[in-house]
Amino acid sequence: MELTRFLEKYQPGDTEVVSEELVDKYAHILPASIITLWRTKGLGKYNDGLIEVINPDDFQDTLERTLGRKALNYVPIAISGFGDLFYYRKLTVTDEDVCLFDPHYNQVETCVWSLVDFFNGYLCDDDIIAEVLRKDLFNASLKKAGGLKKNEIYFFVPALALGGSENIEHVQKGNCQTHLSILFQSWSAKS
Question: Is the distance from CB of 168 to CB of 141 less than 8 angstroms?
Fold first, then answer.
């Protein structure tokens, strides 16, 4: 399997193999490596939810609202335990990248220029795990608030954008789409 390094570092937990209907919907956009991951290991939580491989349909509206437009070749693929949304972009027939939308600071950045490198490199990099995925805070949140269910994340109250801090005392958990919507509304109100 092409995503071997990712699967050595990230153990699937509560995952579900996808339907062929979902595969057919995205097979013309997404690389074969993620389709294989969907078919063999499935969508869901990896390493207790440090990263969640998501159903794009559940997050497409969130992505489009964030970007302010429809993006036909942009596909949400994963979400961190703290709600950072990773999405794949098929830029041309041969060019691709994976971007990160940080909802806490309303920022988008390109992570890496290949989906395979995203899974096998970016997500396996110890600095990324520590800083972007906030592993220590994630582990403390897991202990304090319990495990995450499908489409649940840990978040900060008050939100970081509203003066909150990345501190275990400010962590709660809840539905990802609901929290992302609240953050989006707070960013829209500031504009």
Answer: yes
How far is residue 51's CA from residue 106's CA, in Å, rounded to a whole number?
20
For residue 162, what pLDDT is reported?
80
Task: Return the amino acid letter for 51.
Answer: I
How many angstroms separate the Cα of 186 from the Cα of each of 56, 60, 103, 183, 189?
24, 20, 10, 5, 5
Q: At 82, list the tokens.
A: 């703290």
Phi, psi of 14 (to 5 degrees): -85, 85
Q: How far apart are CA 62 and CA 117, in angstroms?
A: 24
For residue 18, give the 3-state DSSP assignment: coil
- Amino acid of residue 5: R
Strand 51-53 versus strand 43-46 pairing type: antiparallel
Contact in structure between 82 and 75 (CB atoms under 8 Å):
no
Beta bridge partners of 85: 79, 101
Q: What is the pLDDT of residues 79-130, one digit of tens each?
A: 999 999 999 999 999 999 999 999 988 899 999 999 999 999 999 999 999 9
Whole-number Å distance between alpha carbons of 191 and 188: 5
- Tokens (6 digits) for 140: 């403390």
